[in-house]
Write a structure and sequence with these properties.
By secondary structure, the chain is mainly alpha-helical. It contains 6 helices and 2 strands; from the N terminus they run βαβααααα.
C-alpha cells in the first residue's frame, strides 16, 4: 500500500521498473578475482547506497505513515538490489578465500579496520530496516521479497565470518565484539521480516558450497 506524491513526476518512467536481478554469481565483484579488501569496500559501498534509499523510506514513514508511490517504485527495489549485491559479494569472498589464493594475504590490522567499517555500516542498515518493518508489512510481495533477501544474507554473511575467522586469527579477535552487535541486529531484523515459506536458498545465486 502506498500514496501518490507530487514529486512522483520528477523521475523518468524508466526509473519505476523493478531491477533485473541476475541469478549467476559473477567471477568477482570487479569482474576478476579481487582482493578481499576491495570486496569489503564494495559491500560498504552497497551499505551506503542502502542508507540513502532507506532515508527516503523513513521520510515517507514520518510524513505519511506509509510509502509514497515514488519510493515504492524506485527506492524499495533499490534496497533489494543492494541487499542482493552484498550477499553475492560475501559469497564471492567465501569462494575466493576457500581457494587459498595468495592474493588474499593482507595486512591484518588494515583488514580489521575495513571489516569494522563494513560491520558498522551493515548493523546500521539492519537497525533501520527493523524500524521500518511495520510499514513494510503493507507492501505485500515486497515485504516477502525483503524477508527472503535478508534471510539469504544472514546465511551467507555468517558463513563469510566463519571462513574469515579461520584464516585471519588476529582479525577474528579484533572484530569479535563488533560481530556480536551485528548478529543481534540481524536477529531482530529477521524477526521483523520473516522468510517466505517457499524460500529456497539455492535460488539466491549463492554457490552450493557456501
Amino acid at each position: 500500500m502506498f500514496v501518490s506524491h507530487p514529486s512522483l513526476t520528477a523521475r523518468s518512467p524508466s526509473s519505476f521498473k523493478m531491477p533485473l536481478l541476475i541469478d549467476g554469481l559473477p567471477t568477482s565483484a570487479m569482474g576478476t578475482i579481487s582482493p578481499l579488501r576491495s570486496n569489503l569496500e564494495d559491500m560498504i559501498g552497497s551499505c551506503r547506497a542502502l542508507n540513502k534509499h532507506i532515508a527516503m523510506m523513513n521520510e515517507d514513514k514520518e510524513t505519511f505513515g506509509l510509502l509514497t508511490e515514488e519510493t515504492y517504485c524506485y527506492d524499495a527495489p533499490e534496497v533489494l538490489t543492494q541487499l542482493t549485491k552484498i550477499t553475492r559479494t560475501a559469497a564471492l569472498c567465501i569462494r575466493d578465500l576457500n581457494l587459498d589464493d595468495e592474493a588474499f594475504e593482507t595486512d591484518e590490522p588494515q583488514l580489521a579496520l575495513v571489516l569494522y567499517n563494513f560491520i558498522s555500516e551493515h548493523k546500521r542498515i539492519l537497525n533501520q530496516l527493523t524500524a521500518l518493518g511495520t510499514i513494510m508489512k503493507s507492501t505485500g510481495s515486497l515485504y516477502g521479497a525483503l524477508g527472503g533477501a535478508l534471510h539469504r544474507q544472514e546465511h551467507v554473511v555468517s558463513r563469510f565470518r566463519e571462513v574469515l575467522d579461520a584464516r585471519y586469527i588476529s582479525t577474528k579477535t579484533l572484530s569479535a565484539p563488533d560481530w556480536v552487535e551485528q548478529v543481534e541486529a540481524m536477529r531482530l531484523c529477521l524477526e521483523a521480516y520473516p522468510a517466505p515459506v517457499e524460500e529456497d536458498y539455492n535460488m539466491s545465486g549463492v554457490p552450493e558450497s557456501v
